[in-house]
Amino acid sequence: MKRTLLLSALLAFFGFSAAAQVEEEIRERGPQTTAPVSADAVRQGNWIIGASIGDIGFNFDSDFFTLNVNPRAGYFVSDNAALGAEVQLGLDIYDGGETFRYGLTPFARYYFPEGAAPTHRWFGEVVAGIAGSSEEDSEGDSVFSGIFGLRAGYAHFVAQNVALEGILGYTRSSADISVGSGSSGLNLAVGLQVYLPGR
Question: Distance between CA atoms of 170 and 190, rounded to whole angstroms?
Answer without folding.
Answer: 15
